[in-house]
Design brief:
This protein is of the alpha/beta class. It is 35% helix and 16% strand. It has seven helices and six strands. The chain has a six-stranded parallel beta sheet with strand order 3-2-1-4-5-6, sandwiched between helices. Strand 4, helix 5 and strand 5 form a beta-alpha-beta unit. Helix 3 packs parallel to helix 7 and helix 5 packs parallel to helix 6.
């Protein structure tokens, strides 16, 4: 299977990966949860080349993010058909706090990121159903400062299927924390997205090498159906 990061590797990189034995599968369990990371208007933007929508959506991923949304929609449908629960995260700020670490590294109108602003809502194409869970967070990892771990324990979840954005930020942070808590994890390569191509490829490579499984949508849908 061709990997999206392969064209960015040097010959030395390939030797390091082969000799080091990196990229072995950890495997997936029997009780997965589909985790959709920050699929909000602010972070998805408009379905246009990213540079053409930055004035309105400076944090938006543009057309590539929308490609990911369409893949997420397919995954969610299969998850629902097979009794697999779905959880969303939203990266939002409360009016009383200014603790968004991402905001301190960017120039942006922070009012769009405050809870209650429509720009902070999840895009309607994959809006949560009544029985889906939604967790708000202020930092990259879905585990930090949220009740996520309690939810996972209560549901007896052993596997997180992670999609959404951004690959190098909130997806990566959540995946690493999930593995640290001894959950099986799959990041879905064609259902995650980033603003910077290099960050996307490097994030997926790093996750695949050292932390979790990185699989394509079709393989994850087969896994869901097998349960």
């Amino acid at each position: 299977m061709t990997r999206i990061w392969e064209d960015a590797l040097t010959e030395t990189d390939r030797i390091v990966i082969e000799k080091g034995g990196y990229g072995k599968s950890r495997g997936l369990g029997k009780k997965p949860l589909l985790v959709i990371i920050d699929a909000q208007h602010n972070y998805i933007g408009a379905d246009l080349p990213i540079q053409e929508q930055l004035t309105e959506w400076p944090s938006g991923g543009g057309a590539l993010a929308w490609d990911g949304i369409r893949q997420i929609k397919k995954l969610k449908e299969v998850a629902k058909e097979n009794g697999i629960p779905v959880l969303y995260t939203r990266n939002v700020q409360k009016k009383t706090t200014k603790f968004d670490s991402f905001a301190t590294k960017t120039k942006r109108d922070n009012t769009k990121y405050i809870d209650g602003n429509p720009a902070a809502d999840i895009v309607t194409e994959i809006a949560p159903d009544e029985d889906d869970m939604v967790i708000d967070k202020s930092y990259a990892s879905a585990f930090f400062g949220t009740p996520l771990i309690s939810y996972l324990v209560k549901m007896d979840v052993d596997t997180l299927i992670i999609v959404g954005g951004s690959t190098s930020g909130c997806v990566r942070a959540t995946a690493v924390d999930a593995v640290t808590h001894n959950f099986n994890v799959a990041v879905v390569e064609d259902a995650v997205f980033d603003r910077i191509e290099l960050s996307h490829k490097a994030g997926l490579l790093d996750l695949w090498m050292k932390y979790c499984d990185v699989e394509k949508v079709d393989k994850i849908m087969d896994y869901m159906k097998s349960l």
